[in-house]
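In keeping with the milestone schedule agreed at the kick-off meeting, the structural modelling team has produced records for the first pair of proteins. Each record is given below as a sequence line and a structure-token line. The laboratory manager (R.T.) confirmed that both were archived under the project's standard naming scheme.
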Amino acid sequence: MTPAQIADALAAAAASSLPLERRRLLLSAPLAPFTTFRIGGPADVLFEAHTADELATAITAAKQAGIPWFVLGLGANVLIGDRGMRGLVIRNAASGHTMSPSGMLWTESGAIMQDVVLDTVRAGWSGLEHYIGIPSTVGGALWQNLHFLSPAPERERTMFIAEVFEQCEILTEEGERRVVDADYIQFGYDDTVFHHRRDVVLSATFRLTKADPARLHQILQENLAWRGSRHPWLQVHPSAGSIFKKIEGVGAGRLIDQCGLKGFRVGDAQISHIHANILVNLGHATAADVRTLVAHAQAAVKERFGYELHPEVGFIGEF
């Protein structure tokens, strides 16, 4: 099917419920601007969902029309192929969120974590301040059980977003809208049920506690400074975050560094000088450049240390 035929099929499939306006279905739309790596070819059809209802409708329409679909949040932790993606890509921009007097935060899944963090901190609510500076939507945060080290100076344990999670509304793989709790989500380290089923988070509720805004702002500043000294700035050198999964007892970045690969590049894809487990886009990197650089790092670590490096970043689309 051509992109135009796909868009027509989607609009027709959704006509009986919440309509997908044909004019909002963008054809052959570049995806690179919607990823933190700034890499990726076009989607056959791109639709930006502004509400949780629109998100659910777009997915349902794609299923009914037999069209492949993918939900793209902030576009972190993914590498989209140079040939792009077939079918429908739904950019989740559903960002509504409200705070109750009792400390319950309700938010749609496309809300950007940094926006939600700042809003709750300014209002004196604690629970999400640890995740400042981590590029993610709320849906992405739940997908990976977002985590960061506890406040300075001790940083003695890892704080998980599961600790303040109350419940979320999902669209299940079978097409049912339902509200689920932590038992269903099965939070683990960088793992949840969403890695194993095509359920999609539509909205979520978190349980926050009152705190001194001055202390919360201090945590924000300390965490931003800590991350800034260890990670390249996305605004200058786009990346997808850590490229390889954590290895028990030894960091993937340390192994790559010990192979002397900091600064090594293929085309405009480079292993960061700051953090060897982060690959950066120096301006015009392609997905092919990144894949070649990934393979080179894997081979070097395997040859020198015997460890298998496994990508943490999802390789999406056609390469």
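The second protein of the pair:
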Amino acid sequence: MSYIHAMRRKIPSTQALLAFEAAAHRGSFTLAAQDLSVSQSAVSHQVLGLEQDLDVSLFLRLPRQLELTDAGRSLLSRVSPALDALEAAMLDLASSKGEGGTLELGVVPTFATKWLIPRLPDFLKAHPYVTLNLSTRLLPFDFSLTGLDAAIHYGRPDWPGTASEYLMGEESVVVCSPALLSQRLLQHPADVLKFTLIHQSTRAQAWVAWLRLAGVDDTPAASVGPKYELFSMIAQAVKAGLGLAVLPRFLVADDIADGTLAVPFELPLSSDFAYYLVWPTQKAHWRPLLQLRAWLREQALADRPADIF
């Protein structure tokens, strides 16, 4: 068996699929033919050929209209999105003149809001033909089961079936409401245990690690307290006086600078984890991804002097 034969796809012609879709939406071969600027017999012939290839009836041919069979409805639900995606790909390539494309990027939510998005105008100015779509992702996933081309991941570079590039490490600090500092209620690290400790759901041991760093004896109280999923929610909770939290410094730098959050102890907590750009290995030489990698590397290096890794 030749390689070409082995790779041959069992896909009908686009003309047949377009004729089927138009007839399904219009309920008529005649109206579908008008939409497609072809003859009624051409549409009927394309649909009949599709039915013969699939060995299934797609329409009930009633006296004055067409009605989809169950098989026809099932096929339409799959064909229409596929044709839309194909059309979008062609328009995308034509508009970019082959110099760009649409890149689907999974991101850690607060990292995207605080670090990535404020810098994106620079990327888009340098690469106007690249469209960057962002989707939130908190945990690793299988690229083959998503439409994502790459992801910015926090953790270790051990994601199976992928390649990765280190972007930046992370330094976390305890943050509190400025009112607690003015009232001198946090004089020693152990004083944090007098307050509600707010936890980030994917970093449940942050308080335990920080208290150990501060020389405070391990205590069950370090693991007690509400858990929030997003850093942005935790920051707002701390501002509202709901408790204290251990948060990445670069994500709350603006809040610290404008005085809406305070750092009671300069005892930064480092981690073995870091931020990485991760992509499936088969995408390694795709031009939009190469452009994003180079730009992210440049942006991360500019921040590296304050990076503890």
